[in-house]
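Supplementary Methods S3. Complex input for the iron/sulfur cluster-bound model.
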Amino acid sequence: MGPTPEGEPRYQPYHHPAAGWGAAKSVTRFLVREGALVDGPRAIMKMNHEDGGFDCPGCAWPDDTKGLHLDICENGIKHVTWEMTRKRVGREFFAAHTVGELSGWTDFALEDQGRLTEPMAYDPDTDHYVPISWRDAFELAGRALRALDHPDQAAFYTSGRLGNEATFLYQLMARELGTNNLPDCSNMCHEASGRALQASLGTGKGTVDLKDWETTDALFIMGVNVASNAPRMLTALTEAYKRGARIVHINPLVEAAARRAIIPHDFRDMATGHSTRTSTLNLQVRVGGDMALLRGMAKAVLERSATDPKALDQEFIDRHTAGFEDYRKLCEATPWEEIERQCGLGRADILEAARVYEDADRSIVSWCLGVSQHEHGVDTVREIVNLLLLRGNLGREGAGPSPVRGHSNVQGNRTCGIDHRPAEEFLDRLARVCGITPPREHGLDTVGTIAAMRRGEVKVFVGMGGNFALAAPDTPLTHEALRSCDLTVQVSTKLNRSHLVHGRQALILPCLGRTEKDHQRGGIQSTSVEDSMSMVHLSVGMKRPASRHLLSEPAIIAGLARAALPDSRTPWEWYVEDYDRVRDTMAQVLDGFEDFNRRVRLPLGFRIRQPARELVFRTPSERAEFSTAPLPDVVPAPGTLALGTMRSHDQWNTTIYSDNDRYRGIRNLRTLVFMNEDDMRERGIAEFDPVDITSTAKDGTTRSLKGFLAVPYDMPRGCAAGYMPEMNALIALCDYSAQSDQPLMKHVRVTIGAAG
Ligand code: SF4
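Predicted complex, serialized as structure tokens:
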């Protein structure tokens, strides 16, 4: 069972501007399909609004600073409409369908059933989920947690949608229980970025904000499909182009945002169909070739500085950095031939990118998963910082590193304590302020949790939002791991695969959505989120909840905590009555959250202080540190290809809205693999031929996907791409980066041949 295909699979390369009328039509079709022609527009008027609006549950692009009335995008409207559906999944639905039967449905069909309305418990005798009261559900989970021999036999997963207050309570519960097993979705997305920035600058986040984007002279956009995954960035790109800034897109694929766009809230452009360029240079590096390109750009700048000292900001380097000489020697020693081979670009292209960088007084380098989901993700992000340091692009307006986070509060989760490797200072403060004895031993991340579940060492898995069964790598193995648990608990808004891949006991706990009013004793509550640029602001629901049985995430966490820790002195229930109380405690524990309740209510909220932005570096040398990593060899072995997984335009993480991918010209198809035409010809594969894709893991094991359709696409030789979560089955659990422990979602070694 799945979305009604609108016809046969089709492929027609897309040449229209991004956003514009295409987005408007797509939104209208979506609102009609979801029966949200009234609710949709009402919500749109409230979305991303600082005065009592709710924060889009989509990506983490910051809210506009110019008070735009319609600060939204096509995909943001889909995310909100999907949550606001009038469809419901209640006890009647679960009585009508066994888990076994539902397991045969597509992921689209599962989520399309609508909003969960009441807590459900799995009944192994009938293979059905049956209703359970909140009290009994908490007691069931509490009993299982109390029965563990050791708190490390439990793991508490977070998907990036969880608000800051719930996040803080969630980590407090886990640590009061006695574990740091706090895997989260950033273990699979930007872990490398955080570790690299921490090592280079002493902070795990970018240092720029939207004002910097509005003033910079050059933007380097690496490994991100902007028009689908951070669509409001299109506004910043068109504005940059209009003011003469240079925009360089670096990606194996030339995505829609690397051409032109029409910004929907620019009514004149919409009326005239006038589109604006969003790129001045596109560089199609090979999969994993970003680091070599950065090294080449740095080498070019250093070579130029021999004749033009202004090519470097030597004063900045001398005053604020460490390790420059070693880095200069490394660049000098790295042969151009090797750089060209590894990045897959010619010298001329590299030099052109370097010239854009040299000619710009202020530059921003922005990146996403195309950079971080590799073996050498940490080294590549550190190479980004190296390049920025050469010209002092740090700590001044219009300049610096700007990672783009893909989930609305994934950065806030880490800031508010979801970290399996917590800092000692944080634990000291938590202990002092909250009166608990937090464990000091590091816990498990996502890969570690799956491995421990398989070994029977983790027996209770709690998923706070998300769809772990689909988001994680090595799908069949992850499913086996989840099924080996004594108990799995999923806190969710909609039915999904993770409810069907469950432990011996299983609970589905339905929570409020971001658009819904959260009534507590203290009145309607607001939650806060942190965007990619460290701005923290409030989000307040505007709709009546989908069911009177729903609880907020803080209330669910308090219920689980009280059941698991009956003697806890933590005032769980008191916190839930009024989230200002949670924020007052967070203000005492978290760095940069002083006076939290007042500052978060300021227009647009507040920016968490970033020491590196003030040229204060919490590194061993108390300076920004150059790194000197050797270039990795990313050139595929003969006969193999480097495959990167990615999202389509009509999906959000693991949520699939349709089988279409408008900007890549795909209709009615997800089981596909994009390949270079010459690579296809060499293998005797034609467009839409069925192929078998086989990956080989570090441990030599292989995994295959059969009968996917091959699609010729403009990308470098030796590269291939396909959609997650379908292709997560190709990524072995052992294939994670030694630098970041991240699964290698963007660098899978595969062979592709005709099916059969
Ligand atoms: S850009 Fe991201 S946060 Fe903004 S409306 Fe779109 S999906 Fe939502």
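The chain is about 35% helix and 15% strand. The pocket of iron/sulfur cluster is lined by residues 56, 58-59, 61, 72-73, 75-76, 230-232 (CB under 6 Å).
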